[in-house]
Amino acid sequence: MDGVIVHSNPVHCEAWRLYNRRFGIQTDAAMLARMYGRHNDDIVRDYFGAGLSPEEIAAHGAAKEELYRALMAPRLEQALVAGVREFLARHAGRPLAVATNAEPANAAFVLDNAGLRPFFRVVIDGHMAGRPKPFPDVYLRAAAALGTDPSVCLVFEDSPAGVEAARAAGMRTIGVRTTYAELPEVELAIDDFTSTELEPWLSCHIPAC
Question: pTM for the complete prediction?
Answer without folding.
Answer: 0.89
